[in-house]
Amino acid sequence: MPAAAVFAVLLISLVIVCLLVARPAITAARGGKILAFLGLFIFPVLTGVLGFENHMERSKQTRFCLSCHIMEPYGKSLYVDDKSYIPAAHFQNNRVPRDEACYTCHTDYTLYTGGFKAKVRGLHHIYAQYIGKPQQPVKLYHPFNNRECLHCHSGARSFEEGSIHAALMDDIKSNKMSCVSSGCHDMVHNAAQVNGLKQWSAQP
Q1: Burial 117-144 (b: 16+ CB within 10 A, else e)
Q2: What are the angstrom distances between the C-alpha of 34 and each of 11, 24, 42, 135?
Q3: What is the C-alpha to C-alpha distance for residues 194 and 121, in angstroms, rounded to an integer?
Q4: How many Cα atoms occupy the beta-carbon half-sphere of 55 within 13 Å?
């Protein structure tokens, strides 16, 4: 739902409330009662639902995640000119949607609870950013789960038929061996050193 539509519903609700405050006598008639019910209950609830949906979708955007100062080096790591950097290789080669890169790799893939839980944790990040003190360095809540990699790679021929992956497939799928463990795909964001690294120049 576009933000303009949410704003329009909110504006209509405010106009009705102002009308009711200025002329409370109109609630004596049946039409006035219906108008009051719409303005005081239905439209505010509708605004809340539509606004929540709108902001949930917006919070999936890469630019939203990187809008916090503490996340800037993680955004820069997406442009590191080195294919051994997993986030950069995925981002630059469109292996993940660029406009939802953070969300794609850092969210539990369950239709309702995972995404919602991730957003609730995001509220904690906002609190820490504006009221509390952000934790340094940034850490994941839980060790990175191979599920996030397998969401896209499982079933891909290049992944399934790779000799190393095939030999370790049971351990990978059971999360016994991490995809980002030492010796595998262990060069992730490296945010502490990203400022000294060559950046990909073809930034959109």
Answers
A1: ebbeebeebeeeeeeeeeeeeeeeeeeb
A2: 18, 13, 10, 50
A3: 26
A4: 13
Averaged over successive runs of 10 residues, the pLDDT of the chain (204 residues) comes to: 76 89 90 90 86 82 88 93 93 94 79 64 74 79 87 91 92 92 86 90 64
DSSP 142: S
SS3 label, residue 80? strand
8: which 2 tokens? Answer: 């329009």
Domains in the chain: boundaries: 3-58, 70-196
CA distances from 42 to 12, 49, 107 (A): 11, 11, 33
**Calpha distance 184→146 (Å, rounded):** 12
pTM: 0.72
Helix, strand, coil percent values for the chain (each to nearest 5): 65, 0, 35
| CATH fold of 70-196 | Multiheme cytochrome fold (1.10.3820)
